[in-house]
Write a structure and sequence with these properties.
mainly alpha; 13 helices
Amino acid sequence: MAEVLAREFIYFWYYFDIQARQVAGYWILGMVLGSFISVFGKEKIQLLFAALQGKKLGLLGVFPASLIGIASPLCMYGVIPVAASFAEKGMEEDWLAAFMMSSILLNPQLLFYSAALGPAALIIRFTACFICGCAAGLCVRVFFKKRKFFNFAGFTAPENHDTDPNPALRFLKNLGRNIRATGLYFLTGVILSALFQRYVPADAMAALFGKGNRGFGLLMAATIGVPLYMCGGGTIPLLAGWLQSGMSMGSAAAFMITGPATKITNLGAVKIVLGVRDFVFYLAFAILFSLLSGFLVDYVFLT
């Protein structure tokens, strides 16, 4: 029995070591650059969004708003108070929707993490999240122009932890909080990826999520994004292993949309802001967009 356990541990450590080596560098780089942007660029990004308010862009405003949402390093509970402050100043709701949707799906830190998946996955993730933000803004403009979509009552500005007068210490403290917030999830993702590679045959992954099972594979990828998405850094090792085992790029794209869009902590905040009826609309939009994105990506990659 001891010999069997020892052998299994050796196999597990082999896969764990491979996965850790493949993605750890991107995780570290993502945290460093994410903390740098959070400490030294957060206010500039918010000022950039505020500068849109005086411009008569109409529907076109959803495009820069979505890009600024991706550039924002704030988490969902940080984005909502910022959006609330802009709403009080009369910011267009479709611009706010684009900003918040893309911010939910992607941030600079996660974007750097995603480079571990390869150039194609990185470009697909950025493009899909940007278009999703724009589409969310368009939907709000078209379907909710006669009534308010957001209710920001009760949200106040989040506490600013980056207050140390020394810029270097401010950065290091932010980096430390970043490591504490994501380290356990990253480790969990590497462990799960190693377990998948050890005990789930590559043929099974290819059969479930590969090109021979497009429709059901996409639906499964979008569905498992709901319970499996812990944090962005934690899912990168899983996706890297799945892609190596035969998952189609479209299924990965679907997972990368539904995962952050239906992350439990994000859903709690979104439900408060939207109310029950519009919250259902949000879920339907996120799932349908993820499936459509997956179909389009697989059409390009598999035909």
